[in-house]
Amino acid sequence: MNRPILASIDTAAFRHNLNRVRELAPESKIWSVIKARAYGHCFEAALKGLSSTDGFALLDIQDAAWLREHGWQGRILLLEGLFHENELSRAEDLACDLVVHCDAQVDWLERFKGKNHKPLSVFLKMNTGMNRLGFKPEIYRTVFHRLHATGYHMHHMTHFANADQVDQLPSVGGQQELFNETIAGLEGATSLANSAAILWHRNALGDWVRPGIMLYGASPTGLHADIEHANLRAVMQLHSEIIDIQELQKGDRIGYGGRYEAPNAMRIGIVACGYADGYPRHAKDGTPVWVGNRNHGIICPLVGRVSMDMLAIDLSNAPNAGIGSVVQLWGDKVPVDDVAQMSGTIGYELLCAVAPRVPVEIQ
Q1: Inter-CA distances, 274 with 219, 247, 304, Å
Q2: Domains along the chain?
Q3: pLDDT tens-digit series, residues 7-25
Q4: Active site residues
């Protein structure tokens, strides 16, 4: 038999979270962001669970091709546009919407002689303060008119740098004001809001919203407390089992480097999950792990350094646990954001880092 570790993907939770986006942004269409293999959840699950979305947003043109091959007929947005000029014909064949953020992409589009009668749709990216991608406001209109004159369907996009924080510059309001002033009088739809803006800046939504992490049931801020009342559901449940029990005496140490010293006699459960599965090696002692089943269980703390294939938990809270007991590393019982916080990172990273060797079950 295989190792007992398993990532279960709950497509009903996907549907629930997408419906929450619709409730929060009822006047907007939705680009469901599924880059990085749907934040580690796999495209198959995303296509099944998010099939009622208005469009999918991702990075690579081969992933757009996968969606088409598997029956998706709606819109597809390439969030960073094209990386090479020779991809334009394929993007046209796949009917992709393109983000355009740099001069090279503008030049490619001006040279492109499409074979279809329907022009490509372009979301022109404005740099309103993120300083990552996009055209500065002072040249944005010039670029817009260059592409509009070539016949492309033109739309407008920006990205908020601090939608998940308060009183930091450039503020959401400042970026939004600059964006609106720059596009005044220009035709086309707008796309501004990521998950954080959808949750906390309802006046900055635009015509198309771009939810990412909230679709997966995790927090844009990295703190689960910030979304406790948002009515989102964890989509991924990372499960494994206890594969051994160790009886420690006071003063015994556990794991590489002996980081954890037993304060008294205690039972330790060895769990089949390690950093080669995507669990963070730098998780601190006390990181929560759920031991039990869906109806009954309890949190037991991580103890000692995470190994490549295993980790250890203190079973003082679960005296009846033993070999074969089910554990949840993160999911509906243990928010991934809580594990991330104890590991000095964010839930995004943990979800995206689940290793290919971990089997995936789509429910």
Answers
A1: 24, 21, 12
A2: 11-216 (3.20.20.10), 236-362 (2.40.37.10)
A3: 999 999 999 999 999 999 9
A4: 35, 256
